[in-house]
Structures are given as structure tokens and as C-alpha cells.
Amino acid sequence: MHVACILIKNFPVRAESQRCPKLYGKPIIIIKNVGSHQTVVDCSPEIGPITLGMSLQEALSRCRNAVLIQADPRYYYELFDSIIISLTSISPEVQKQKLGCVYLNLDGLQSIYEEKSDLIFALSQAIPQALHPSIGIAPNKFTAYLSALLSLGEKNIGILEEERVGAFLKNLSIDFLPLPQNNRIYLHRLGIHRMGQLAALNIGPIQAQLGPEGKTAWQLASGMDYSPLIPYKPRESINEYLELPSPTTTLNTVLIAIEIVLDNLFSQPKLRGRYIRTATLELGVLHGITWVRKFAFKAPIGNKDKMLYALKNSLENSTFEGPLENVKITLSDLTAAYGIQASLFSDVQRQEQLRQIISQLHMKINNDTAIYKIKDIEPWSRIPERRHALVPLNH
Amino acid sequence: MVKNTRKATCLGPIKPLNPPIPITVKETEYHKPVNIILDGMSLEIISIEDIWEIYEEWWRVNPIVRTYYKVTTRNHMDITVFRDQLDGNWYKQHAFNPIIL
């Protein structure tokens, strides 16, 4: 098997630079709020010894003139997903490893890209160059990752043939292996600093000392990576975006905007006859982080009114950091044709309507208040309180 | 045979409908109501429209023995009250089917 690894180091920083080109070349620290503290999510590589999770005060003490940016995970993952979708046009098997790291299975592409240079050109064209991707091509995922990380060749491209894998890994530090910290320290104490030294040992004692992780580390150090490439399965989704005429703090305006967006979505041919299991509501906050709420429906919803009701209920008790300036709704997990068997009998139809109303009331009240119905117990009884009782209505 | 779960028996989520509500009633020496205190108001009874008695569950230690009075008050309100013949307390209760909206 031949695998390509596309690695975009410091993805959040690169994404922000791509979004705002004037940040290019400036030292950037991306922060997020953790309770009452702010911690570092990512930083420009040129800044120096700043570790992820470090407090903002400590990070600023090491680089006072850094530009501080609040993390926007929604934007980073959206950009990353768009890159993956464009890579699926090159290879059908694309694995999303983590933010900024993708694997592609290159087997069978020789008939399309006869020369490796053609393949590399296609890969680099699929990714915005402002993100400075590194590409590594090797016989397996681990060596492809290292090849991209260390980028032995020009233009951040590393190609590793099978016969050169041993020599490539021999002098690399064991710190590149996926081992827990304590195991790594243990190996260093034993004088095993390089992968070549680890691969030269027998697998038995390594596995006995370090367990399954030790076995995996030995195999990787020996150039063997048996982990499968798990292809990314794109989720079918449809979205619609609306910019408000001016930032607003009025909930009614936002609800009208949501209704317009839902109207547009449900009028699209793609949704005809189909039902939705998941909806994501994103409200852009002026100068702030987008408010995002995801809804998973127990029963798939196929009409605008029910969905509007669900979205409205969640907004009524929500607070926002600032005025709202745009609305985006993404509908995903679309089902095939779905229907609920209705009854011909009016009694059953009435009961079904009542059940739906009660279900909506429960959602609105948002607690487990029981709703009761009057049931005849002993209607013939001479004792009035024995004739009827209130019984919970299970919906 | 059903195993005894040893849980205390109870009605569970079933709630009674139209339970008797204790009230204060002034009565004559023959235990007829003349005045009802309802919601802090003292209501004089101007007529008794109907009287009936029930004597149920006689096999129990505390049978149900009540005398019902359907009365009209001075402000033209129709109320049904009963006197528990065992403890002498008065209660208000709809004697017929409760109004179901």
C-alpha cells in the first residue's frame, strides 16, 4: 500500500491567516476561555517555547507583541472539511486523522497519475497554499506522517520508498512514537533514544515491559504499521445562510430570519420527500464567537413548522454575547423517504394529535410535569371520590 | 404465584379526582347546616334543596357514613356538603360527576 499524508502544522493559526491576510507574518496566539482563565490553543511556530494549554499571561510574557485571537473551532473544522472533500476528488479513501492531518490511500491511482509529480501537483492544488501544507508519501501511515512532518524534500514534500524506510527511521528519536510519557522516559533511561535501537531489540521483552503500546511502538520503529486507513464518509447535508440587514438583539427578528432560512431549505429539491434527523443552528455574534447549537430529533422531521418550533424553544432560554448578525442552518442526516402510518379512524387521529401537542408542551415546559386524563374507576359508586381518578397520560 | 416485592402498596401516580375538602359549618342541634365558612367568607344557608345518606363499606373498621346536603347560600351559590357521621366533621364535595371541560 502507498499512503500520502497531508500535514498542515499549526492549523488554527494558518486558518486565521488565510481568513485575514493582514495577519500573515505576525506572531499569533490563539486562545480560548476555560472557566475564568484563558489558555493557549495554538501559536505561530516562530514565537518560541509556548506550549498548548499554557495560560495567556505566561504566553504573553514570552511574546509581548503577539496578536491575540479568540479560537473559532467551527471555522477551523469547516475549512478542514472542505479540504477533505476536495481531496476525495483525488482518492476515494481519505482518512481524517485530526485537525490538520489527513491520510490518503494512493493504491490504484497509478493509472490516473502516471508520474508521482502529477499526483503531488494534484494534491497541492487541492489545498490552499496559504495553509503551507506538507506532503509525505510512504508505504504506510506512520512513515508517511513522519515524512510530511520532517519534509525531507523541497517545497515541504517528502517521498519515501520502501527500501529506504529502515534507514529513514533508524536515527529518528523515539519521541516520535505514540508512547505514553512515562514509557518514553523509561526507554530514555535505558539508553534507548533512537528508533533503530528499539527496532534492534526483540519484540518479546519490549511487549513484556511496555505492554501492547510497546509492541505497537516496536512495530512502528521497524517500519511496520498495520493500522488500517479508515475512509471518511461524508455526511449528506444542506445548508442555508442569511445575513441580517443590521446586527440585532431582538429575538423576534432572529426568529423571522430563521423562518426565512427554513423556508429556503425546505423548498430545495434535495429535501423533497426526505426527513431530517439533525439540525445545526449557527448565529453569528458581532465581534464575537458564533453561537452554535446542534439538535438531534428523536423522530425525523419533514416539515418546516415542527423544526421551527424546536429551534424557537431552545432560543427562548438562551443568552448571547452580543448582537446577532447572521443565521446559518445546516440540515444533515437526511433520511430516505420516511412516513408515519396515519389512521383512517378519526378517534385514532385525534389521539395522535393530542400526543403531539403533549410532546410539544413537554418540550416547551422543559420538565417532567405529568399530564393527566380522567379515567372512570367505579362510575356507579355512591362515594363520589371513587368514581373517577386522574391517570398520567403517557405519550 | 406473584412474588411479594415487599414494597409498600400505594396508588402510584394515580391521583384522586373530586376528593372531599374540609370546611367549617355552623350546624343546629339536629346537625343541619345553617352557615358555611368558605374562602374566608361566611355564607348563610337559605335553603336545603336535597338530603341523602350513604352507608358504604360497612365491613371495614372505618365504614363510610355520610349525610349529604345540597344547599343554596344567600349569594345564590349551590354547594353540596356532607357531614361525616363518625367524626362529625364537615366537607365540601361535588356529589355528581365533576365538570369535565
SSE diagram, text form:
The complex is a heterodimer of chains A (395) and B (101).
Chain A: E1 3-7, H1 11-19, E2 28-34, E3 37-43, H2 56-62, E4 67-70, H3 73-87, E5 94-98, E6 101-105, H4 116-125, E7 134-138, H5 141-150, E8 157-159, H6 165-170, H7 181-189, H8 195-200, H9 203-221, E9 237-248, H10 251-266, E10 276-285, E11 291-301, H11 304-316, E12 324-334, H12 346-365, E13 372-376, E14 388-392
Parallel strand pairs in A: 2-4, 7-8
Antiparallel strand pairs in A: 1-6, 1-7, 2-3, 5-6, 9-12, 10-11, 10-12, 13-14
Chain B: E1 15-16, E2 21-27, E3 33-38, E4 41-56, E5 64-73, E6 78-84, E7 90-92
Antiparallel strand pairs in B: 2-3, 2-7, 3-4, 4-5, 5-6, 6-7
Mean pLDDT of chain A: 84
Report the principal-axis shape of chain A. Answer: elongated
H and E order of chain A: EHEEHEHEEHEHEHHHHEHEEHEHEE
- What's the pLDDT, averaged over the residues of chain B? 83
Provide structural commentary.
The complex is a heterodimer of chains A (about 400) and B (about 100). Chain A has about 400 residues and is an alpha+beta fold. Chain A has helices at about 10-20, 55-60, 75-85, 115-125, 140-150, 165-170, 180-190, 195-200, 205-220, 250-265, 305-315, 345-365; strands at about 5, 30-35, 35-45, 65-70, 95-100, 100-105, 135-140, 155-160, 235-250, 275-285, 290-300, 325-335, 370-375, 390. Chain A has a 5-stranded mixed β-sheet, with helices on both faces. The model of chain A has no long low-confidence stretch (mean pLDDT about 85). In chain B, strands 2-3-4-5-6-7 form a 6-stranded antiparallel β-barrel. Chain B is globular and about 55 Å long. Chains A and B meet through β14 of A and β1 of B. β14 (about 390) of chain A pairs antiparallel with β1 of chain B.
